[in-house]
Amino acid sequence: MTNSIKRGMILGFIGIVCFSLTLPATSIAVPYFGEVIVGLGRTVIAAIIVGAIFMMKKQALPNKGQFKSLLIVTIGAVLAFPLLTTFAMKSLPVSHGAIELALLPLATAGFAMWRGGEQPSKRYWIASIIGAITVIIYAIYVGFGQLQKGDLALIAAVIVLGLSYAEGGKLSKELGSWQVIAWAILIGAPFFIIPVGLSISGSMLQAPVEAWISLLYLGIVSQFLAYVAWYGGMAVGGIARVGQIQYLQPFLMIGFSVLFLGESISWLTISLAIIVVGSVIVGKNAPVMKKEVHLE
């Protein structure tokens, strides 16, 4: 494995660990701040930080082609995913959401072939399918087979974030990893200020410390710093290969839900986690071919 792939895998893992705290933090914050503040307010918080960084660095504007890609990232990572997961976390436990979000690697790989020009090998797809089937079996076993509105929201979130991940990973190679999510945040934030402002109420001041910490985490880490590591990892290690690390995310989420929310964990979860980790090890070492694509 080359140094660039190793660096990409390390950055990707850091990003996934940070993302794995997103659903637990959302679950803690939503009852006190509501869907709009948690779903959109995190972007406003991140925009303050990004704006200060851009002013200090005097960042150049993206070109027309880059701006089109940034719109895709903005719609997926900044608008749709936060809102959809916030809605889902009103009615679903974190473990439920974690299992469904485990389908992200397949969505990311599919969009990577379309937008990034990557062609994963058969070994990669076999590893991906094994990982996906494993988490589906887990979901069925624990009784999550019946679709609810929250399930539909999470499935939609998987689709839009898969496209956003692939587009952001591709764009990171020319724009820079942290610049991709930073520009997406700045593009989306102005549209969120009014609804966020109208949703602020005095009762929020009574929210406990853990709720405020969760909201700040969502704005600073989940919405910005985690994407810096994640897009940076995909840029140097390959979208499809680094995307395999996402199979660890459901089990990290479940672990964090035990730690912070008091949810229980079984030996079945641990056993299936070992299988998923094995698929990641196989998949990340599988060859990934590259072809030239010409997008309008």
TrEMBL record:
Keyword Disulfide bond: no
InterPro entries, A to Z: AA-Vitamin_Transporters, EamA_dom, EmrE-like
Membrane topology, as annotated: Multi-pass membrane protein
Domain of life: Bacteria
Annotated localization: Endomembrane system
Keyword Membrane in annotation: yes
Keywords: Membrane, Transmembrane, Transmembrane helix
Cited Pfam families: EamA
Main location: membrane
Transmembrane segments: 39-57, 69-88, 124-144, 150-168, 180-205, 211-230, 251-282
SUPFAM superfamilies linked to this entry: Multidrug resistance efflux transporter EmrE
Domain EamA span(s) in chain numbering: 7-137, 149-282
Similarity comment: Belongs to the EamA transporter family.
Protein name, entry field: DMT family transporter
Organism from which the protein derives: Solibacillus faecavium
Upper lineage: Bacteria, Bacillati, Bacillota, Bacilli, Bacillales
